[in-house]
Amino acid sequence: MFARTRRLTLRPGWPEDAPALTQAIAHQDVVTKLSRAPWPYTERDAAEFLTQPRTSTDATFVILCHDAAYPQIVGCIALTPDAQGHEFGYWLTPDAWGRGYATEAGHAVIDMARHALGIRHIHAGHFLDNPASGRVLTKLGFRPTGRVEPRESRARGGSVPCALFELDLDVSRAIPLAA
Q1: Each residue of 73-121: pLDDT tens digit?
Q2: At a CB cut-off of 8 Å and minimum separation 6, what does 83 contact?
Q3: Fewer CB near the last or first residue (10 Å), C or N of the chain?
Q4: What's 38's DSSP letter?
Q5: How deeply is 23 buried, as exposed, middle or buried, from its count of CB atoms within 10 A (0-12, 13-18, 19+)?
């Protein structure tokens, strides 16, 4: 699957993306806000991530920005199947923070989840020391569950408090967003 927005292209990552992906993610400020990424993050880690088996309905994408002279990888976004259904997650390189890319890419992935994949409910979380991610989730329509639970951070080597969110994609039960 692919998606194109006004400023972004979301596409599967390819093995040849490993150097650019490494350059985008290999920042301690990025990796320590993620659950599964190691620190330090190397090109070998990127190559392993990019060569994981994928299916035709896989919703894991690199985010390419078109604001520069040529498209460049500025992050990743995904819906990952897990025991609770599907988890929404993303990261952006520091140079891309504060530009609305996470919200723009998030809307595209949520539309895919709803219309192409038939997913009716997704969940997400953010570490408490990353409130900007919570603001993005809220802009995308996620609602806080009121629960905070410990989540592993591989880069930090332990558990970190994580605020949990959910989004109901069943149109018949959706809560309208405030204007």
Answers
A1: 999 999 999 999 999 999 999 999 999 999 999 999 999 999 999 999 9
A2: none
A3: C
A4: -
A5: middle
